[in-house]
Here is the input.
Amino acid sequence: MKKINIALIGCGRIAQEHLGAFSKIKNVRIQAVMDKMEGKAKSFGEQYNCVGYTDYKRMIKSESLDAVIVCTPPNVHSKISIFAISRGLHVLCEKPFALNETEAANMCRSAKKNKVVLMMAAKFRFTDDVLKAKGIIESGLLGKLLLFENVFCSRVDMTNRWNSRRKISGGGVLIDNGTHSVDIARFLLGPITLTQAQFGCQIQDIPVEDTARIYFQSKSKVMGTIDLSWSLNKDLPSYINIYGTEGTLLIGWKSSKYKLHDKTEWETFGEGYNKHKAFLNQSRHFIDCITRRAEPIIKPIDGLESVKVIEKVYESSRMNKWIKVNEAKTYGAKR
Here is the structure.
């Protein structure tokens, strides 16, 4: 089987998860890594027995590559991805997909023009329990869905991290963790059509929000709340709760279950969240999209929509009112 040569751009925290997953796939060769900090590039290169670069353009021009994994801060996602795509390379880009709808749309157009795979990295889409929950929902077992609740709240000191620098990150906890939340909600419920957000009491001495709550309504009229925080710790067994007319479903960190209203017992359907397995599933799927032309689970339009919704959420927080979310154009949604 032909080896797929990949390179990673941005040797930060999340890069180790991606490289660890791709290194387990037999038909993948980690060809090169790049980081602006020479020490990081060299260290990662030694760890994965490949060349370390400090310039992504030089790396892409010098190496024989099939794909790149973009793990940089989001302010450069668009320009790096588009450069790689213009060279005919497939791209797996970390979330947030881009800082704004214009950047995201340009990425999608470029991928369509060059006929390459462009996929936003979203680990929860490759979590077994989330996928099983999607099947349960679509079976109609829970009846008509009424309410969606998501909580991603844990205490993390963001004082010295790029995530709290607005020009680099695009915002605070809302865009950072909220991108996952919006993508999960869209996957399980369908398009989001209305949203409103509020920021909580600022605890950390950083120039971006550290606590936020998103309210939304889906196209199918499901109400939703999303709680996000770097300063508040909600130690809950489940991170997604879904309530329907016929039952309740909980997606948990250690197990997942559902209960129908006419039953007394909960039915367990999952073993909880396994980050390493989710990254491995995501990596394998990305490679399958390249080698077998499999239909991407996360299409370019999904990355674009996640950016668009987050933009509208920020707008609603500034205006302190509900904001309508119009569905974005397709921009070559499949590949």
Remarks:
- The first helix runs from residue 13 to 22.
- The mean pLDDT is 95.
- The radius of gyration is 20 Å.
